[in-house]
Amino acid sequence: MITHPDLFIGGTWTEPSDPRLLDLLSPHDGSLLGQAAQAQPADVDRAVAAARQGFDEGPWPHTAPAERIAAVRRLTALREEHADEIASLISAENGSALWFTRAGQPGLTRQANAYLKAAEDLGWEETLEPSDPNAPFRSVVRREAVGVVAAVIPWNSPFSAALAKIIPALLAGNTVVLKVSPENSLSMNLLAQLLEHAELPAGVISVLPADRETSEYLVTHPGVDKIAFTGSTRAGRRIASLAGAQLKRVSLELGGKSAAVILPDADVEKAARGLQFSSLLNNGEACIAQTRILAPRSRYDEVVGALKAVVESLPVGDPSADETFIGPMVRRDQQQRVLDYIRTGLDEGARLVTGGPQIPPGLEGGNYVTPTVFADVDNSMRIAQEEIFGPVLVVIAYDDEDDAVRIANDSEYGLSGGVWSTDEAHALAVARRIRTGTVTINGAPIGFDGPFGGFKASGIGREYGAAGLLQYTESKTVTV
Fold first, then answer.
1. 122, 199, 388, 413: least CB-packed within 10 angstroms?
2. 179 and 284 part of one domain
3. What is the pLDDT of residue 129?
């Protein structure tokens, strides 16, 4: 069992204001994984004060970009050395299948490298050529840090979410208070240990596991200059309102209900096999999951049959087993939420193709859900409009390409999506019509050099690469 009695505040392990430790239970069987301290408002005060001093009086914002780049490279190297430990911890905490947490480790390196390249290429200070050649002045434009960043992340992919915010914030010279979910106390304390060895100045970074009430205390704290949040749209709306009242900078990566459009010429078997990754990654607990499958009426039964065969072939069970594809939901209430949505689909009149609200045999002691596919779904149904965050797919028929685009766009969300076709140029043309922040063609992975974020209720701002780095800077113009 792992025990973390202290909190990582301003680069130092510190006794928490509340000495009680939270029991961390396995989603697989309810066994005790470890215990960890949880931050309270008094701990937030200390973390923000350390960050404020580190930014206002410390050296970090004034270091050369090359020094900050070197620090992030040290952190990346440390994280790579502990890749197997990270994958195992996240799998144990979240119930994420080990294939998924292991596969994500090289992605973390690519994510970091994209930010590092953007920092190396960015003109941190540039002199503009005047539009009027006779102007008696010149303008110098600087990119400077925003200040103290409150980074608030969810439980489903903690290292990816944390580093997507920490790395660009640090590269830009900000100080950071990272608020993590209680469920991830073990893996995020490991991240804190890596940060401890990355040789950052005092005050630059804190890592606080905490509940929602403490999160709200952090985002409303007067010492915070910017909020970077990943989580539900409901929580994002709340944070946006709080940030607006204080005129704080804010970036929000929120929920999704993404559509995968299977065009009439697609290889249906290939699409179904690809969708097991695009739609059911991380047990379906992923904001980018393509859980609305749009199929042409001319091939509807073929698509439904192919998805049924693939989903029924996926091993469900112990997330630490190499053969497992789908593990348990992170918590018991999340399991019940997903089961309730499955019952809602039945009540709405959708046809159950496979799965259902029964727990997989032999796995009743964990937070398991049977992977489920619904057919004959109308896009107005709740199971087609609301983010379920579990292994539940809905198959929706469309008449023609215009109808497919209309259905894909008929959602309050706009985070991700996919198009499947044997004609890449045609697929790209359809992708251009879908109102969403990211579209993948034929199961291509999401890249880290381009911007990632949402349209509509899926968020504000962008992460990854140059666009993500700029979210943590302010532009200053000096006229000479």
1. 199
2. no
3. 86
Q: Count structural domains, the chain.
A: 2
Tell me the C-alpha distance between 276 and 311, whole Å. Answer: 7
Residues 36 and 88 in one domain: yes
Which CATH number do you get for residue 141? Answer: 3.40.605.10
Pairing type for strands 259-262 and 372-375 reads: unpaired
Active-site residue, 287 included: yes
Using the predicted structure, report yes or no on whether residue 132 has a pLDDT greater than 90: no
Residues 322, 241, single domain; the answer is: no
Reported as a single tens digit per residue, the pLDDT across 357-395 is 999 999 999 999 999 999 999 999 999 999 999 999 999
64 burial level (CB within 10 Å; 0-12, 13-18, 19+): exposed
Can you give the pTM of this predicted structure? 0.96
348 shares a domain with 267: yes
Same domain? For 25 and 135 the reply is: yes
One domain, residues 277 and 166 = no
Cβ atoms within 10 Å, residue 213: 9
Question: How far is Cα 327 from Cα 312, in angstroms, rounded to an integer?
Answer: 14
Report how far residue 456's alpha carbon sits from residue 427's, in angstroms, rounded to the nearest whole number.
23
* 360 and 386 in a common domain: yes
Q: Is 442 left (phi over 0), alpha (psi -120 to 50) or beta?
A: left
With respect to residue 59, please indicate whether it lies within any of the assigned structural domains: yes
**Cβ neighbours of residue 471 under 8 Å, at least 6 residues apart?**
168, 228, 251, 461, 462, 463
Token readout for 87 is 């994958």
Assess if residue 452 is contained within a domain. no
Q: At 379, which amino acid appears?
A: N
399 contact partners, CB below 8 Å, separation of at least 6: 297
Written as six digits, the tokens of 257 are 């209900």
Asked, for residue 305, whether it belongs to a domain, the answer is yes
**Residue whose C-alpha is closest to residue 90's, from 101, 106, 81:** 101
State the chain's mean pLDDT as an integer: 97
Domain membership of residue 272 as a residue range = 259-447
53 and 13 inside one domain: yes
Q: Which of 93, 183, 285, 287 is catalytic?
A: 287
Contact 238, 210 (CB under 8 A): no
Q: State the DSSP code for 27.
A: T
183 is catalytic: no
- Quick check: helix, strand or coil at residue 436? coil
Amino acid at 120: E
List 183, 253, 285, 463, catalytic entry? 253
Distance between CA atoms of 223 and 160, rounded to whole angstroms?
A: 26
